[in-house]
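Quick one, T. Sequence first:
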Amino acid sequence: MRMLSPRELADALGVSESSLKRWVDAGRIRAARTEGGHRRIRLSEAVRFIRDSGTPIVRPELLDMPELAAAEREAGDDAFLRYLVEGDARAARGWVLGAYLGGASVAELCDGPIRDAMHTLGERWRHEADGVFVEHRATDACLQALAHLRGTFDPQPGAPLALGGTPEDDPYLLPSFMAAIVVASVGMRAVNLGPDTPVQAMDQAVAHHHPRLVWISASAALSPAQAGAIGAWLGALPRDVVAVVGGHHGAAIVEANPQVRHGDTMAELAAIATEVVAAAARDGLS
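Structure tokens:
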């Protein structure tokens, strides 16, 4: 995680260094001290301050965020869809980052503009000859945008860990990737196993990482046997592991094991992950 000097952050925000130092001294911005006594501010803390205070960024390139300048200011969700249709991944990254810095949560972005845009593009391939490549290109742009956003998070080394993926023969990349970003945004460490992950591989990952939360994103149809096997495996997880299932076909797993928590939205997943983080803090566990 990048560390910023007060001068660097002040220049990025268009304020004086003395004002920035006063904010640090007043506790508005948390800073560490070097061995020489100099203040240093983590990028994640700078992002928190920007989000909480609504302070505009005057020179985004100083925060390694040049994409902000590529997206239209005050642009709505239609602009994001247009960037995806046009294949302008840089502007799409800037739009997502700008919306997040403006106060939108990661879950809100995933449940709202990203989901809506991908649904629109998913319908396009049914009716237009270029629909498939446009949708695939847009998926990659969304992955880039979310990965860039993830770089502004800084979960603590001892934070509780979450892991998950999609079932075997489920090829969808974006839903599980969004789940990983969402849980990371509320303070968890996240391991995304990605698409087409057999239960055996997930079981090995659980044994290796000892997560406190496991998510399954089921976007492709499941056979009764497959849903039953996943439900049984989730039911056999250690008692201190919270299992969450989502996606268009997640209900089939919940029917097989009603004890599994069902999250229809990323906001619900964020709420569950927040509960896990709070419980781990109370228990002093990771």
